[in-house]
Each structure stands twice: as C-alpha cells, then as structure tokens.
Amino acid sequence: MKFTAEQIAGILEGTVVGDPNIEVFKLSKIEEGTQGSLTFLSNLKYTPYIYTTEASITIVNTDFKPEKPISTTLIKVEDAYEGFSKLLEYYDRIKSNKSGIEQPCFISESVKVPDNIYIGAFAYIGNNVEIGDNVKIYPHSFIGDNVKIGDNSIVYPGGKIYSDCILGNSCVINSGAIIGADGFGFAPTKDGGYTKIPQTGNVILEDYVDVGAGTTIDRATIGSTIIRTGVKLDNQIQIAHNVEIGKNTVIAAQSGVAGSTKIGEHCQIGGQVGIAGHLIIGNNVKVQAQSGIGRNVKDNEVLQGSPSFGYSDWNKSYVYFKNLPKLVKTINELEKKVDGNN
C-alpha cells in the first residue's frame, strides 16, 4: 500500500516541503530511513539524522528550519509526534479493515448481527449479546451471555468477555485479555479451608478504554468493577473485584490493584506497582515503578518506594540508603574511639 506526500499531508492537515508526488510504503526510524520509507522528527536530539536520512518523507514540526541541505521531503504539522501517531492509527485502521463473518463460528440465534461487522473463525457469541456498529471480534474470542459491546470496539484474537459485562464505544481488548472472570472471593471455614463467595456482579468499560494483552479485570462481588472513559491499561495487569479507575488514568505493565480500591482521574501508575485493597487514590496522582501503595493517597501526590512515600523525600533518603555500609563503618569506628577514650 503506497501513499504520496500530498495524500499524507491531507490526512494530517500539513504542508509539503519538497516533492508532493513522492511515494512511501513503509515506516522507519529516522536514523534507519531508506528509500520508500516514512519517518518523523520530534525529539531534537535526533535532528542530525534529518541531514543524513534516506527516508523519502519526514514529518516535522511547523517551526523546523533545516540548517543544511536535506534530501527528504518534509511534511510540516503542528506536532510531529502527534501527527505520526495519527498516521499510524489511520494506517492500522485500513490494514485491519476486515468485514464479514468467517466460518466456523457460533453465534446465538438471539443475537442481532449488524451488517458492518467482522466476526473471525472459531469465535463464540452467546445468548442475548448486543453488538454495535463496526465491531470487530477476531478468531477464538469468547463473548458470554448478555454482553453489550459498543460501536467501533475491537476484541482481538483470544479475548474473553464473560457474561453480563459491558463494553462502551471504541474499546480495544487485546489478545488474551479476560474481562469479567470471578473476583478473588473466599471465606475461611472452621475446618481451616475456604468456601467460595459467589461473584454476582459484572465489569463495565466506558468509552475509549484500551486493555492490554494478558490483562485481567475481575467481575464485582456485588455491583460493578468500573473502568472509566479513556483509561489505558498495559499488558499483564490485574484489576480485582469492585475496583473503580477514573477517566484517563494510565497503568503500566505488571501492576496490580486489589479489591474495592478507587483510583482517581488522570493518574499515571508505573510498571510493577502494587496497590492494596479498600484504598482511595486521588486525582492526578503519579506512582513510580515498583512502588507499593498501602494507604490512601491525596490529589497530586507523587510517590515512590515500598511502602511508598513522597517522591522528593524518597530521592533524598536514597542518598543515605546507598551509603549505609559507609555510615555503619563510620559509626563503628567512632564507637571504638569513644570506647578507647573511656
């Protein structure tokens, strides 16, 4: 699939500087650009490469002015990184523009299937499922009874949506993700064992939620586990029962949130973060990677460590952490001197 500089500029509402008819058919890093490739420049430290790149087209910011001759055709946009991302999204949409129903697959007779849909081979669609327009359900996916899927949502191969769960518009469920498995609910018994507590709720994903590969979101014991609009979850994350995550919060890979914790809006949570249950995390909170959260967190806090505490305090304390052997040695020497003088 080939695109000209003029076509790309039209998509991005940009301006061509160079040959408007030059064509590209692949993407590249600016330092690895070759003929026929499209790249971008947004980080200034990569500026030297624009004078040596062989990429046919480079997306740059509108204020970029070359100081030396260049061979690449430029497309100037307000934000090169955002423009390149928009182009990737456009390309991905064209590339994955599948439609129709492949066989074999199972679709319950109670399901009203829209005309503009894609259902891949070996997919299972249960009873009373509601599917919106332009939905794509890839092969080997499971959609349980009474599930609702909003317009333009995608369930990639092997995605599992358990019964009664709700997906909003433009949600993305990546391969191996599981939405609505039982929450971890067990009560200890007198004989030292455990009895299962039925998990009768569901999971609700609002609009524009992305769920990474291998991520699991448990159904609520009662009520709903709720992921609000615009939340982005990386791969291999565990969200426990009755958790609520506020809109536009992002969580990186291998993090875990225990049951009934409420996370606010616009939070940024790093990889391998553990958050205990029944907590309230405020809005605009930032948690550094590998931190452990065991207390309520106020709005705008920045945390690090396990157990976590203020980021600036952690940095100051780290100076002492790494010098502990020297400090212990110094104290031992001082104690010997004191004992020798007594």
TrEMBL record:
Gene3D superfamilies, alphabetized: Hexapeptide repeat proteins, MurE/MurF, N-terminal domain
Annotated EC: 2.3.1.191
Superkingdom assignment: Bacteria
DNA-binding as UniProt keyword: no
Active-site residue numbers: H241 (proton acceptor)
Catalyses which reaction(s): a UDP-3-O-[(3R)-3-hydroxyacyl]-alpha-D-glucosamine + a (3R)-hydroxyacyl-[ACP] = a UDP-2-N,3-O-bis[(3R)-3-hydroxyacyl]-alpha-D-glucosamine + holo-[ACP] + H(+)
The UDP-3-O-[3-hydroxymyristoyl] glucosamine N-acyltransferase non-repeat region domain, residue ranges: 21-89
Broad enzyme group: transferase
Residue ranges annotated for the Mannose-1-phosphate guanyltransferase C-terminal domain, each copy included: 102-222
UniProt keyword annotations, A-Z: Acyltransferase, Lipid A biosynthesis, Lipid biosynthesis, Lipid metabolism, Repeat, Transferase
Pathway: Bacterial outer membrane biogenesis; LPS lipid A biosynthesis
Keyword Lipid metabolism recorded: yes
Subunit structure, interactors included: Homotrimer.
Function summary: Catalyzes the N-acylation of UDP-3-O-acylglucosamine using 3-hydroxyacyl-ACP as the acyl donor. Is involved in the biosynthesis of lipid A, a phosphorylated glycolipid that anchors the lipopolysaccharide to the outer membrane of the cell.
Family: Belongs to the transferase hexapeptide repeat family. LpxD subfamily.
UniProt name for this protein: UDP-3-O-acylglucosamine N-acyltransferase
Taxonomic lineage from the root: Bacteria, Pseudomonadati, Bacteroidota, Flavobacteriia, Flavobacteriales
